[in-house]
Amino acid sequence: MKNIKMLLFSIVCLLAFLPNVLAASGTISVSSANQVVSGNKLTVTVTISSGTKLGSWQMNLNYDKSYLQLTSSTAEAGGTMMAASSATGVTKKSYTFTFKTLKTGSTTLSISSSLAYAFDDLSQVSLSNGSKSVKIITQAELEASYSKNNDLKSLSVEGYEITPTFSKDTLEYNAVVPEDVKEVNIIASASDSKSSVSGAGTKELTAGTNSFDIVVRAENGSEKTYKLTVEVKDKSMMIGMRKTVTAG
Predict the structure, then answer these.
(1) pTM summary value
(2) pLDDT surpasses 70 at 194
């Protein structure tokens, strides 16, 4: 630890006495999740980058200790100060910080004390410092934001007609297939991309009535079940049905 502190001190001194000529530009970005539940961890990434190779740099990550508690860091001294040099020059360097969130509310992480110098000519790099705002919420607030949409967008049986015509509010459907059909492909899609659908796909058939449940599970966990009955009829019955429909 003592050697690391001496290294950081040397880098800071070097930065302080290098020529103050701005020849290139760079950015320091701060990225993380936009929202996190209180008590959970928050991972923050700080990246310094430039189109010009960097020879040395220094920057500090600021945060509100009433909202966040630092638990781990890849910075040179293990804290929030990032200061290093490169023997070959780099165009990008990233650091990762892990925090425990302490209470609800909105907080911002920002960069201060930033300096960087080009590898080739030791000229100072003009830096644009980024920041990141994070909202810390309760588990109940998170769950309340989940989608409740458990509707189907479409339902069909490949190659066969279903009745009645599909509507997201109609929960029961029927289809009739000939006796030589051994399986059908049920196609179903959810209205909400955050929902999941189970019960669709290729289904084996037996003679007579076959019942299938297509279940839509919303993001918040609520479920809606659509019922599809596929009736396998022999050819004579199918012909009789067609004649009845034609006569009608």
Answers:
(1) 0.68
(2) yes
CA–CA gap between residue 228 and residue 224 (Å, rounded): 13
**How far is residue 153's CA from residue 151's CA, in Å, rounded to a whole number?**
6
Query: With the CA atoms of 164, 169, 172 and 177 taken in that order, what torsion angle do they form, in degrees rounded to the nearest 10?
Result: 40
Cα dist from 76 to 30, 88, 97, 130, 187, whole Å? 17, 18, 12, 20, 55
Q: Which tens digits make up the pLDDT trace of 23-53? A: 699 999 999 999 999 999 999 999 999 999 9
- Asked if residues 106 and 66 have their Cβ atoms less than 8 Å apart, the reply is no
DSSP string over the chain: -HHHHHHHHHHHHHHHHS---EEEEEEEEEE--SEEETTSEEEEEEEEEEEEEEEEEEEEEE--TTTEEEEEE-STTSSSEEEEEEEEEEEEEEEEEEEEE-SSEEEEEEEEEEEEEETTT-PEEEEEE-EEEEEEE-HHHHHHTS-----EEEEEETTB--BS---TT--EEEEEEETT--EEEEEEEESSTT-EEES-EEEE--SEEEEEEEEEE-TTS-EEEEEEEEEEE-HHHHHHHHHHHHH-
pLDDT tens-digit readout, 121-148: 999 999 999 999 999 999 999 999 999 9
Residues in the chain: 248
Map tokens 């339902």 to a residue. 155
CB atoms near residue 20 (< 10 Å):
9
